[in-house]
Amino acid sequence: MSTVAFQTLGCKVNFYESEGIWQLFKQEGYEQVDFEASADVYVINTCTVTNTGDRKSRQVIRRAVRRNPDAIVCVTGCYAQTAPAEVAAIPGVDIVVGTQDRHRLLPLVRQFQEQREPLNIVRNIMKTRDFEEMNVPGFSDRTRGFLKIQEGCNNFCTFCIIPWSRGLLRSRKPENVLQQARQLVEAGYEEIVLTGIHTGGYGEDLEQYRLASLLEDLDRIAGIRRIRISSIEASQIDDGVLNVLKNSDKLCRHFHVPLQAGTDNVLMRMKRKYTTAEYGEKIARIHDIFPDVAITTDVIVGFPGETADMFEQGYRFMEKMQFSEMHVFPYSKRTGTPAAVMEDQVDDEIKDERTHRLIKLSETMQLAYAEKFVGQTLEIIPERICKEEQHLGMIAGYSDNYLQVAFPGSKDMLRRLIKVNITKPGVSVSEGNVMHSSEANVVASL
Ligand code: SF4
Fold first, then answer.
1. How far is the CA of 122 from the centre of ligand 1 (A)?
2. What pTM was computed for the model?
3. Same fold, 128-252 and 259-372
4. Taking a C-beta distance cutoff of 8 angstroms, is the pair 25, 45 a contact?
5. What is the pLDDT of residue 439?
6. DSSP classification of residue 372
7. CATH topology of domain 377-445
């Protein structure tokens, strides 16, 4: 039996697509082996979101070539899409496929086996208008069911290379999204995570069917217990979406709404589609609907032109937003983006100092948010057995409001909704105890 090994870098979308590519090899009778093992075929799904992404992708490619010089090495994903010649030039790379045409990988492997000639089929993604369907009935190592609903982005933020690697926004046909959601329910997934490159932009290219319409239709599917939106821009939190939030008991009380910067000056240089006032107004409206909602965000520190005053102003704005967690990224130049050639690049030392302060702020926010739920019972979907010292022997997973909780429990509880009473708040992981049915009836869970 032929063997194939996968290594995936980057975001949820890449992991989703690697699962789709694995399904193609599985249908051909391949066995999947660990990437550290010797395989007949290696598939590397690359990332290019930062220059570091490119470097790490090259390292992984070279590792595969060294592992088995006779293997067929296939490279796909965003780095392959934006720099196909560079990838094809790495000694040992046999097949280069970008962020489309993944369904052609198996025929290409067969073609290479016959002709032993390197193949590079990367084509211009900016011309693509169709969403590439991939069959993903389940995930080999995931507790939550990821559901890709759209591709690409039309925003062209000045620091971001993604529109050039993923193309313009394309929404998946609603009937295909709903069909796969039913498949994931049948496969036993309690939670569906809607994902994409610009998830909140779903439907912008469709007639009369937006994200709110899709959320309503998903909400009607029996068996789905939780629906999570992986990320949504402030500018896309419209009345339609807010109305669905009000009426659904399946939508998770967690919204990841990237802020990126806390001053209008920097937001304008980033070409973001909102001001701090508009952002704040949207977050306030979500809090009105869901008082205990978790708002997480992404923040870029030290964007070109960010002065000390702007940083302080942004810091105060973030404090006001009371996020439950902030993902803090020091600005890193991405070759090929407008921001990379902007003047007033910020010194690394200053960037580090500011990054450190925002991480500290995020930790304070994370603990403050977790403290709110001590004594309450939340439903957790445990997804791992804890290996960290302080939670050894416990299992851990997330609540609908994205609180990670560790609690004494057994392996057969993994992937199921378990009622847990929160006993101890934590910055990244809180603790609790399982509420047994008799106790659970007493304490109102949600
Ligand atoms: S919204 Fe901006 S940051 Fe997000 S993918 Fe699009 S261009 Fe990149």
1. 22
2. 0.92
3. yes
4. no
5. 53
6. T
7. OB fold (Dihydrolipoamide Acetyltransferase, E2P) (2.40.50)
Count CA atoms within 13 Å of residue 255 on its CB side. Answer: 27
* Residue among 305, 306, 304, 297 at smallest CA distance from 328: 297
Q: In 144-203, which residue ranges form alpha helices assigned H by DSSP?
A: 162-166, 174-186
Find how far residue 213's CA is from the centre of its chain: 22
The CATH fold assigned to 259-372 is Transcription Regulator spoIIAA (3.30.750)
Taking the domains of the chain in order of start, what are their residue ranges? 3-123, 128-252, 259-372, 377-445
CATH 3.40.50.12160 matches 3-123? yes
> Residue 95 phi/psi, 5° resolution?
-135, 130
* CA–CA gap between residue 422 and residue 371 (Å, rounded): 9
**pLDDT tens digits for range 290-334:** 889 999 999 999 999 999 999 999 999 999 999 999 999 999 999
Instruction: Return the closest-CA partner of residue 35 out of 69, 1, 60.
Output: 60
Residue 198 near ligand 1, beta carbon < 6 Å: yes
| 206 Cβ contact list (under 8 Å, min separation 6) | 171, 174
């046999």: which residue's tokens?
94
- Copy the structure tokens of residue 215: 């959320």
Give the number of the atom of ligand 1 that is nearest the alpha carbon of residue 166. Answer: 5
Q: Is the CB of 273 under 6 A from ligand 1?
A: no
Distance CA 322, CA 361 (A): 10
pLDDT tier, 351 (very low <50, low <70, confident <90, very high otherwise) = very high
The 3-state secondary structure of 21-74, one letter per residue: HHHHHHHCCCEECCCCCCCCEEEEEECCCCHHHHHHHHHHHHHHHHHCCCCEEE
Alpha carbons 91 and 240: distance in angstroms, whole number: 52
Tens of pLDDT, residue by residue over 37-76, are 999 999 999 999 988 999 999 999 999 999 999 999 999 9
Residue nearest to atom 8 of ligand 1 (CA): 160
What distance in Å separates the CA atoms of residue 78 and residue 49, rounded to the nearest whole number? Answer: 8
Topology of the domain covering 128-252: Transcription Regulator spoIIAA (3.30.750)
Q: How many CB atoms lie within 10 A of CB 115?
A: 9
- For residue 258, how far is its CA from the centre of ligand 1 (angstroms)? 10
154 CB near ligand 1 (under 6 Å) = no
162 lines ligand 1 (CB under 6 A): yes
Dist. CA 378–CA 110, nearest whole Å = 51
Over residues 226-251, the pLDDT tens digits come to 999 999 999 999 899 999 988 999 99
Q: Ligand 1 pocket test: which of 157, 166, 170, 259 has the largest number of ligand atoms within 8 Å of its C-beta? A: 157
